[in-house]
Design goal:
The complex is a heterotetramer. Chain A is mainly alpha-helical. Chain A is built from 14 helices and four strands. The chains are: A mainly alpha, B alpha/beta, C mainly alpha, D alpha/beta. At the C-D interface, helix 4, strand 1, helix 12, strand 4 and helix 14 of C face strand 2, helix 2 and helix 3 of D. The complex binds adenosine-5'-triphosphate (2 copies) and magnesium ion (2 copies).
């Protein structure tokens, strides 16, 4: 029966599978814990999700362009340590642009190696993960960095401020998500990223500057990391050298949950947002229910596989794979 | 029709559906021992699907398969082989990093104890088969190092690994040279003499009429009838296939051409081609004819900025130019419809409209956004002009038939308003109906003042569309013909490497 | 280039640049680190390499198959936990040193089971292995924590950790096991029908299906093999520790993939071999050991390892530049 | 094991190898390393080989093998895991190399193979924190706990000391939940935010170190609920010290990485000199609260 349903509702489900799963999930959780669906909790989870979320936006674009970015975690450590450290040395007015530029440089290195030299993105960004982690440690000498005057700096606005009662990180996240959604769906750049990810050879045969497009996707990813670092640095008002460790996997999991194909060429920013929120709500919901933190890993396992499975199944019109 | 033999194989009332498509709708088909039975139909008529049902790759929704008069269930390719049914695939189905021998016996490698491969037997048997096919390479070589034609021979060699009852060839000649075709036809004759039933699928009428004994025609997944080859002609078959006759006359050369749009002087790209000089005028179609591997595609790629020439110069509108990438070529008004539409021409899962406007999408903007209206206008214009069959622009290019895919690619480049249009193998694997449409289209384009270069390995095609023909052999131009002076004989001589002077 | 192609040894090196690199760093460290070129140290390198090396053998199979397994680190931790904990089960209290046997068997079975789950999901759902095993990487780690209750286990029986110190003649037993595994997997991959089909499935899955290879079960077997090898690696590691910790094997998947890719196996499948993988793991092992002996500061080790990874990838691309048929894409 | 070595310790240079847990993961370990190198440099008779395991047990075992292979005179180890390093330490013992364990101790089974332990008493620190918590709450209240990285000895021991002592000393204080903060301020902040949503009444927070404690404090301040909430930490960091000075943070345990490093080196030298060194050399890690903080220097990390 499920198969028949899937066949009938195939196209719609394929588009909205994640949304349906997300809503079901929220309903189940709100029955399990009465705290779950309170405005306070929802806003707090939303705010917590913004760091992974902003990074996931950039990575979604990289993945649509047919590549991977595993270096975002280290890059986040780098950017956060840099902005927090420079905050007290040269003031936030300079620290923020310097950090953004430095992070973009790292993105440019990724973009150069992958877009222009055409090296494999998985391995290059894995290597960069290690290199950047080392750079952070060398830069900071392995010491934590902190902002001395936490209550007075305007830098606090990124992580802790609010506009009309809505936390600034949420505004940043939603704003960027809408911006990138529009960029990817309505502009020539977005179309070209889809084309390069979908078929790089045909793109070159169509006169698309493939190298430049891939390069730009990595710059965008780095820019997102820089924004995430502003939120993180401002929220914590300090940083450890390994603060971003493991983020790359959370980000990737969110992108995958959003149904973006790792083969490139297809994916959606808005569905990545759903993926991000879903992961954040799983984490939050299970803790609210008093489960030990590691059950969240087990649930995430199941959710990722079931969600992606249904997505794939709806696209091919049958539940089980045709592999013999 | 009288039935002298009991059929080796019968398909009855086969129905096969895919989501949204009824690919086969009650098809009947039979093959007798020792006959060549041709299967014809437009692109997407269901020929390959029918054969995949036969080979156990698809399970039919309805209908049955009889072998030697008994109903059988064929659940997978191994079972089909066990029943003596072998399918040579339309698309190459090889593993590039493995040896020819392993590819020939893929899925059925001979075993020794402990699951070890019996290399000795494997190579001995494979080499024997390759010799029978008169191949000049050994079974030990890696397939990736073989030419496309030789890869095709490896594919064909698979048919000879078992005592076949029925062998299906699905468009085997698409990438074979003439010499290899002769070998293939010998093999087919040989098999036939041994009483094997052959199913032969091709879009080339000449082959069908030389080889086959009977012809079955499919249309839109439906059975349209079976004819005795001896008792029919191309026109009848064509009408059964596409519902109308084709105009197969050569065109009349227009009285005069415009100015020279593109000139190439002593262009070389070692080791692919050397010393290439030719020119194309507005309103003219120049055909490049040669065997596969003659280097024609490489010339087109060089003109389009995809390869760097080692010597020589290119002049557009009389001005020498450097073309370092496709964008530069596009800016100079050069367009290339590439050889391989799936890999080079289309982003398959993108929709038709987006594919068509891809090279110019950054110019179709209003403000920062792509102008939807402008895109749809372009799509509508070329859909109508090229008679592309698709329900809407939103259809993903992957589900279109080969011919319609090709038209999308042509439309994409026409919409760029080029001055020089290069088309490489525009009708490879395309049915006769679409082929003739594309030929007519190329002539019309020339009449409108485009300079057109057509690269083709099919003689009838170059003869039909060209005003001039450049014959190539092994990376060199052997001779240039005016359409009025060309004959099939001197063309064949030219592309086989016989010097122009000797011919003249 | 032509100068190189005449000499078969040099030509071989061109196709296996990683071995050239191994040679280079070997000579370098022999000259510049005091205790490097020393029989004991070379034994140490092999033993140290064996942990990642065993998993890399399995990863080579899975990657040639066109898949990937990110869950190996967690599987390793799970197997180590079983191997150490089961020994102390009351049921085996009277078995003496034999209590190790059921523990090790159970650990290896657990590894095979995890591989089977991954393989089965990939087979039946058709979801990409990267995604399936990314999920499993979290999930199996969760299982480890559920099972261990966040605690480390230790083996009360010193016979267990003594095993890792044993030698067969001059060779440490761990090194011997690793070398045997290398030979076995190399044999499997190059000589058996299953091994050849592994290339076929990864090189062109459709062709393999057309040829009647049962692709699903075939891939599942390779996932079970990598599960087994990861578990074996976990067991051997736990013998070195006499204990098991729930965080064991974090990030190993990244190092394993790195080693395998350095060894020339294609991420898209269809190409690669055990000789290359062995070069890849030795390269990482020698670098780590050499840098320890030379006391390279920890922060620089990250930078050096990452840069070398990218550099080798770059050189490999330079040497084996045959793709695209010379087209500028 | 010490018998054979008495002769090694005279005037000529001694080579000491150290393998640390995870330098750079936090300032404590980094400062420790710097202090250790500084102390060694100050002593012309000492040559040190400094290695870092990056938090990976297997790598630490390899480093132990490498050090044994180089036949150093003594090994100092900061175990990534108390259990798992026992056989490696035993190897060193069998090779006749004395081992000094630093910062967090090795498991019971390994005690026979080490020359000495030098470091803080993490269980005692947990006990101190429990006592301060009890004190601050006056024996009544509801608290939450944020622990370090799950599975690591320091985290486990501090939690153990805290839990046991709290139950015994203050049955009136209930622990609502325990979740990890991974030694990471941002993660602790997130964990605390969820606690704040989940529990309407939280009177106290115990964090496995001040870095996480300040994260929890940040969360409470942002939620407007920090007023009257008691924050107790361990390993007093500079941020914790400052928060204490502002009156936002109640107390912590003062632990100096410089003392830690110097004690470890000195213990090793004493062992090599053949002195009679007690097995357990705890250095002092006193309670630090708003009341007595003037007696302590602001931590350098
Ligand atoms: N796996 C599939 N899923 C969905 N539709 C399919 C599939 N395979 C074939 N079709 C559809 O079935 C129809 C028949 O396709 P088939 O490949 O049999 O055509 P054909 O006659 O071999 O054409 P050609 O001459 O171009 O090879 C087409 O409309 C095609 O789009
Ligand atoms: N000498 C050769 N050895 C092996 N393969 C070759 C050789 N020459 C060409 N090929 C292969 O044959 C195919 C067609 O060759 P190429 O594109 O050079 O010829 P062409 O003149 O454009 O012919 P066509 O357009 O008819 O294919 C290519 O895939 C090429 O790799
Ligand atoms: Mg077909
Ligand atoms: Mg060609």
């Amino acid at each position: 029966m499920l198969i028949a349903r899937l066949k009938a509702g195939g196209p719609t489900l394929a588009k909205q599978g994640i949304l349906v799963a997300f809503i079901l999930f929220m309903i189940v959780f709100s029955f399990m814990s009465d705290r779950f669906m309170t405005t306070g909790n929802v806003m707090s989870v939303f705010r917590q999700a913004t760091i992974v979320g902003v990074m996931a936006l950039g990575v979604t674009i990289v993945v649509i362009g047919g590549n991977l970015d595993l270096s975002v975690g280290s890059m986040l450590s780098f950017a956060t340590v840099l902005v927090v450290d420079l905050h007290d040395k040269i003031g936030p007015e300079l620290a923020v642009p310097v950090m953004v530029l430095a992070t973009l440089c790292l993105g440019a290195v990724n973009g150069f190696l992958i877009g222009i030299l055409r090296l494999n993105s998985l391995i290059v960004t894995l290597g960069m993960l290690s290199v950047i982690q080392g750079l952070v440690l060398i830069y900071s000498g392995g010491q934590n960095v902190d902002i001395a005057n936490q209550s007075e700096t305007w830098f606090r606005v990124f992580g802790r401020g609010a506009v009309m009662g809505i936390a600034t990180p949420i505004i940043l996240f939603v704003g960027l998500a809408l911006f990138f959604h529009i960029l990817m769906t309505t502009t020539a750049f977005g179309r070209r990223v889809h084309a390069v990810g979908g078929n790089p050879v045909a793109s070159v045969f169509s006169g698309i500057p493939r190298s430049r497009i891939v390069f730009l996707t990595y710059l965008i990813s780095a820019l997102c990391v820089a924004v995430a670092a502003m939120i993180l640095g401002s929220r914590v008002m300090g940083s450890q050298n390994n603060v971003g460790q493991g983020y790359e996997l959370q980000v990737l999991a969110a992108v995958i949950l959003g149904g973006t194909s790792l083969l490139g060429g297809s994916g959606s920013i808005l569905r990545t947002v759903l993926g991000v929120l879903m992961l954040a709500f799983i984490q939050n919901g299970l803790i609210l229910m008093g489960q030990p933190y590691y059950t969240q890993w087990l649930v995430t396992w199941a959710v990722i596989i079931i969600a992606v499975w249904l997505d794939v199944a709806a696209k091919r019109g049958r539940l089980l794979s045709p592999i013999a | 029709m009288t039935m002298p033999h009991t059929p080796a194989l019968q398909l009855q009332g086969i129905v096969k559906t895919f989501p949204g498509v009824r690919a086969l709708d009650g098809v009947d088909f039979d093959v007798r021992p020792g006959e060549v039975h041709a299967l014809l139909g437009e692109n997407g008529a269901g020929k390959s699907t029918l054969m995949k049902v036969l080979a156990g790759m698809y399970q039919p929704n309805e209908g049955r398969i009889l072998i030697g008069g008994k109903t059988v269930a064929i659940r997978n390719p191994i079972e089909a082989k066990a029943q003596g049914v072998v399918l040579i695939h339309q698309e190459l189905s090889l593993v590039p990093e493995m040896s020819a021998a392993e590819n020939i016996y893929l899925g059925e490698l001979p075993r020794k104890s402990l699951g070890r491969v019996d290399w000795k037997t494997l190579f001995a048997k494979s080499n024997a088969i390759l010799e029978r096919l008169k191949c000049r390479f050994r079974a030990e070589v890696t397939v990736a190092n073989l030419s496309i034609a030789n890869q095709q021979m490896v594919e064909i060699a698979r048919a000879l690994t078992v005592d076949a009852r029925v062998v299906v060839f699905d468009e085997p000649t698409a990438s074979l040279t003439d010499a290899e075709k002769v070998v293939l036809f010998d093999i087919i004759t040989d098999l036939k003499a041994q009483g094997v039933g052959i199913v032969y699928i091709s879009h080339r009428m000449d082959e069908i009429f030389t080889l086959s004994d009977r012809i079955t025609v499919l249309r839109d997944g439906q059975y349209r009838g079976t004819l005795d080859t001896a008792a029919t002609n191309e026109d009848e078959v064509t009408r059964l296939m596409i519902g109308r006759s084709l105009d197969l006359t050569r065109h009349e050369a227009p009285p005069e051409f415009g100015k020279t749009m593109l000139e190439v002087r002593n262009l070389s790209c070692a080791p692919l081609f050397r010393d290439i000089s030719f020119s194309v005028r507005a309103g003219e179609v120049v055909g490049f004819y040669g065997l596969v591997g003659a280097g024609r595609t490489e010339i087109a790629e060089t003109l389009f900025g995809l390869r760097s020439p080692s010597a020589g110069e290119i002049l557009v509108d009389g001005q020498p130019v450097q073309i370092t990438n496709p964008r530069a070529a596009i800016a100079l008004g050069i367009s290339l419809v590439p050889e391989n539409r799936k890999e080079q021409g289309l982003v398959l899962h993108m929709n038709c409209r987006d594919n068509m406007t891809l090279p110019q999408v950054q110019d179709l903007t209003s403000g920062p956004f792509i102008s939807n209206g402008a895109e749809i206008a372009i799509f509508d214009q070329y859909r109508d002009r090229l008679a592309i069959k698709t329900p809407s622009w939103k259809q993903s290019a992957s589900v279109l038939s080969g011919g319609n895919q090709q038209k999308i690619v042509i439309g994409k480049w026409l919409s760029m308003q080029p001055r020089v249009l290069i088309v490489d193998e525009p009708t490879r694997g395309i049915d006769v109906g679409s082929k003739s449409e594309i030929h007519t289209l190329l002539r019309e384009l020339a009449a409108q003042g485009y300079a057109v270069i057509v690269i083709s390995s099919e003689m009838p095609e170059v003869l039909r569309v060209s005003d001039r023909i450049v014959a190539m052999y092994n990376g060199r131009i052997m001779r240039e013909f005016d359409i009025s002076e060309v004959t099939e004989d001197n063309l064949v001589q030219a592309i086989s490497g016989i010097k122009a002077e000797e011919v003249a | 280039m032509s100068m190189f192609s005449n000499n078969p040894a040099l030509r071989w090196l061109m196709h296996n640049p990683i071995w050239g690199f191994v040679l280079l760093i070997f000579v370098f460290f022999s000259l510049s680190a005091d205790h490097f070129f020393d029989a004991r140290n070379l034994q140490n390198i092999v033993v140290q390499t064996s942990t990642i090396g065993l998993i890399a053998l399995g990863m080579t199979l899975v990657m040639i198959n066109g898949n990937i397994d990110l869950s190996v680190g967690a599987t390793l931790a799970l197997a180590a936990a079983f191997a150490v904990d089961v020994q102390s089960w009351a049921a085996f209290a009277t078995w003496g040193n034999w209590q190790i046997l059921p523990a090790v068997c159970l650990a290896l079975l657990a590894g095979i089971a995890m591989g089977a789950i991954n393989g089965f999901i990939v087979w039946k759902t058709g979801v990409d292995a990267f995604i399936v095993t990314l999920g499993a990487m979290l999930g199996i780690r969760g299982l480890v924590f559920v099972y261990t209750g966040e605690q480390s286990f230790y083996a009360a029986n010193f016979a267990y950790s003594d095993f890792s110190m044993m030698s067969l003649g001059p060779f440490p037993v761990l090194a011997v096991i690793f070398v045997l595994a290398v030979i076995a997997v190399h044999w499997l991959l190059s000589r058996t029908v299953h091994g050849r089909n592994t290339y076929a499935v990864g090189g062109n899955r459709e062709a393999a299906v057309n040829a009647g290879i049962r692709v699903g079960p075939h891939m599942m077997i390779n996932f079970m093999l990598i599960g087994f090898l990861a578990a074996l690696s976990g067991v051997l590691l736990s013998t070195q520790m006499g204990a098991a910790t729930p965080n064991l094997g974090r990030d190993y998947e990244l190092w394993v993939i790195t080693a395998v890719v350095l060894g020339g196996t294609k991420l898209t499948g269809g190409k690669g071999d055990i000789i290359g993988t062995l070069g890849g793991v030795l390269a990482i092992g020698i670098l780590r050991n050499g840098m320890n002996l030379m006391q390279v500061p920890a922060f620089y080790v990250y930078v050096i390892l990452g840069s070398i990874l990218i550099a080798v990838l770059f050189l490999d691309k330079r040497f084996n530049r045959t793709q695209n048929g010379g087209l500028r894409l | 094991g010490t018998v054979a070595l008495a002769s090694a310790g005279s005037a000529e240079t001694v080579r000491i190898g150290i393998t640390q847990n995870n330098v750079g993961i936090d300032s404590y370990q980094t400062t420790y390393e710097q202090a250790f190198i500084a102390a060694a440099d100050a002593n012309p008779n000492v040559e040190v080989i400094v290695l870092d395991a990056g938090g990976d047990v297997a790598r630490q075992i390899s480093q132990m093998q490498d050090l044994i292979q180089q036949q150093v005179d003594a090994i100092i180890i900061w175990p990534t895991d108390g259990q798992a390093l026992v056989p490696a330490v035993r190897n060193a013992f069998n090779a006749g190399i004395p081992v000094v364990v630093t910062n967090s101790n090795i498991a019971e089974a390994g005690m026979d193979f080490i020359a000495a332990f030098s470091g803080p008493n993490n269980i005692q620190q947990g006990i101190y924190s429990a006592e301060m918590m009890c004190d601050a709450l006056g024996g009544e209240g509801q608290i939450v706990q944020i622990t370090g990285m799950p599975g690591y000895t320091t985290a486990i021991e501090r939690q153990q000391g805290f839990d046991e002592r709290l139950a015994e000393l203050c049955p009136g204080v209930t622990q609502l939940d325990i979740q990890p903060g991974d030694w990471n301020r941002e993660r602790a902040q997130r964990t605390m935010e969820t606690f704040l949503t989940r529990f309407d009444q939280i009177d106290g927070v115990y964090s496995g170190d001040d870095n996480m404690g300040v994260g929890a404090l940040n969360a409470a301040i942002d939620a407007g609920r920090a007023e009257g909430m008691v924050f107790i930490g361990a390993t007093n960091f500079a941020v914790g010290y400052d928060a204490m000075a502002r009156g936002e943070y109640w107390g912590s345990v003062y632990q100096s990485p410089v003392d830690d490093a110097e004690a470890a080196l000195q213990t090793a030298l004493d062992v090599l000199a053949g002195e009679d060194v007690p097995k357990l050399n705890y250095f002092d890690t006193p309670k630090i609260t708003q009341d007595n903080m003037d007696e302590f220097d602001r931590p350098v990390f």
